[in-house]
Amino acid sequence: MADEMAVEARPHPVAEPEPEPEPGPKPEPEPRPTNHAPYPIGSLGVLVAGMLAVLVGRHVLGDRTGPAWLEAWGAVFVAVCVQALPFLLLGVVLSAAIAGFVPARLLERALPRNPLLAVPIAGAAGVVLPGCECASVPVAGRLIARGVAPAAALAFLLSSPAVNPVVLVATAVAFPGRPELVAARFLASLATAVVMGLLWSRFGRPEWLRPRTPSNGPTGWPAFRASLEHDVLHAGGFLVIGGMTAATLNVAVPRGLLKSLAGLPGVDVLVLAVLAVLLAVCSEADAFVAAGLTSFSTTAKLAFMVVGPMVDAKLIALQAGTFGRAFAWRFSSTTFVVAVTAATLTGWWLL
Amino acid sequence: MRREVRALLHILLGAAVLHISLFSELYLRYVRRGLRPYLIASGVLLVAVGLVGAVSAARQLLRPGHDEPDAHDGPDAHDGPDAHDGSEGHQGHGHDHHGAPRTAWLLLLPVLAIYLLQPRALGAFTAQRSDSTAVRPAEAAGGFAPLPATDPVGMRLADFDSRALWDSTGSLKGHRIRLTGFATPGPGDGTWDLARLTISCCAADASSSKVVIHGADAPPEGTWVEVTGEWQPGGPSGQDGAVPALTASQVRRIGEPENPYE
Prior knowledge:
The complex is a heterodimer of chains A (351) and B (262).
Chain A: H1 43-61, H2 68-101, H3 104-110, H4 115-125, H5 133-145, H6 150-163, H7 165-174, H8 179-203, H9 221-252, H10 255-262, H11 267-279, H12 286-292, H13 298-307, H14 313-323, H15 325-350
Helix pairs in contact in A: 2-5, 2-9, 4-6, 4-8, 5-6, 5-14, 6-8, 7-8, 7-12, 8-13, 8-15, 9-14, 11-13, 12-13, 13-15, 14-15
Chain B: H1 3-21, H2 36-62, H3 79-83, H4 108-117, H5 124-128, E1 153-155, H6 157-166, E2 176-185, E3 192-198, E4 207-214, E5 224-232, E6 245-253
Helix pairs in contact in B: 1-2, 1-4
C-alpha cells in the first residue's frame, strides 16, 4: 500500500486550467461506453452516508463513554494527530512553495557538487526551518524531487527538527542552568545528520528511494495548489498511522518497567533511546519530557533528545509514505545506531 | 480517489480541527493552550483548500461530458482512472499523478475520533500507570519563594510535590494547602492519591503528579475534587518517584476544570 505513493512534482496538477470543450457546435449527445458505476454512487456517496451515520451515532451514543483504555488511547491518538497537523501543514506549504515557485535549477546550484561540502551545509541549513519533525519530511521529499542530492536533503531532514532555534530555546527552558546540554544536543544532532548524509552518499542506492517522475511539470499557483492537496492527503494518511502506533505504545508500555531498567549503567542510554522511538513526542516538547525522567543519567536524556526528532514511530510512518518502505526501515535503523553513538560520545565529552 | 472526495476529506478534517479549537475548548483535552492559533489556522487552511477543490470539481461536473474520461485529453483525463479506487492496474509505480492513495482514507479516523469518540482528557487510567514526577526546580538552589499568606494556599499539584520533596526549609509546614485534581486508586487497599497530569505539548507527553491523601475516604476513581489539608512530612525527601502525603481536612467534589492539565 505504501508503495503507491510518492511525493513528486506532478506533471498534471488538478489546478490546470480546464481544457476547452471540444470545438464544434454539437453538444455530443452520444452515449458513452461506461464501465464503472454511474456517478452519484461510489466513494463520495459512501462518504456522505458515513457522515450521516456519524451524526446519528453521536446522537445515539449521547454522553456514554468507552472503557478507560479506549478513552486514553483516543486522547493520545487525537493529541498526536492534532498536535502534529499545524507542523505538517507548515512543511506541506513550504514543500508546495518549493514545487511552485523555486526553479529546480536554482536548488541544484545552491549546493556544492561535492557531498563532503554539500552535506554539512545542508545539515546546518536545518537551523532555518522552525518546526518539528513533521514539517521536515515533506520539505525534504520535495527537495529530492526538485533535484537536490538525496544525501544533502537527508542531512537536512535529520538536522532541522533538532537544531532549529525553537527547539534549542525549548531545551534551554526545560534544563535551566544547563547550557552545556543545549550545546550537546546541537552538536550531537548535527553530527548524526552529517554522518547519515555522508553514509548515504557513500552507500545509499537510488533504488531504495521511491522512483519519481522528473519534475518538469508546471510551476506557479497551479503547481502550488496541486502539490498542497496531494501532500496533505499523502502525508496525512501516514501521520494517522504514526498516531495510532504512538497511542498504542503510549497506553500499552508501562512506565514502571522503564524505571527498573534505569539503574543499569550503559543500558539507560539505550532504554531512553528506545523510549524516544516509542513515544513519538514532538521535538519541541521532548526536552520537557526528558527533564521529567529524573532517574536517568544526563547522557541518557541527551540520547532521548537526539534520537526522538530523527527516529520515532510517527516519523517512520511518515518517511515510509514519502520515500517508500524500503528506504524507511534501512534509514531509520541506521540513524538510530548513529544517533545513539553520537549522543553517547557527546555526553561523554561535554556532560 | 475522485477529486470531489479529496475535497470533502480536506473539508472534514479542517472542520474537525475547527470544531475542537475555534468553536469549543475541547482542544485543551489534547494539546497545550498555546497551540490554539496554529490549530485554527490549520483548520481554515484545510477548509479553504477543500473548498477550492470542491469548486473546481463542481465546475468540471457541470460541464457536459464530464464523466467521460477519454473525451478530452487535458490533465483532467487522469481523474478517470482515479474513479476506480480499487482497480489493480492502479497499484505500484504507475501511481497516478494527482490521485491519493487509499491511506488517505485514514484521515477519516481522527475525524471520527473527534466527533464520535470524543475522548476525554487523560485521567486516572494514565496517572495510575505512571510514576509521580517531581521536577527538581532550578530555584531549589536559592530556596523556594515564601508561600503567600492566604489561607488556605491554593497550589498546583506539581508545585506541591516539588516543595514537599526538594524544599529543605520545609516551607509547606504550618500552612493549609488546597489542591485540585482527580482521585486515583493508590497502590494499597483503600488508599487513594490525588493526581493531576502535566503536558508540555500534547497528551502524548503527559507526566503525572500525585499526592497521597490521608484522613478521607476515597471518592470514585476519576472524580475531580478539591482537597484542603496539611502536608504530612515523612519519608525520604529528595527521592525520585516518592509521593508526598497530605492529611485532608476537607474534600469537595468539583466539575472538571476547563483545562484538565496543569
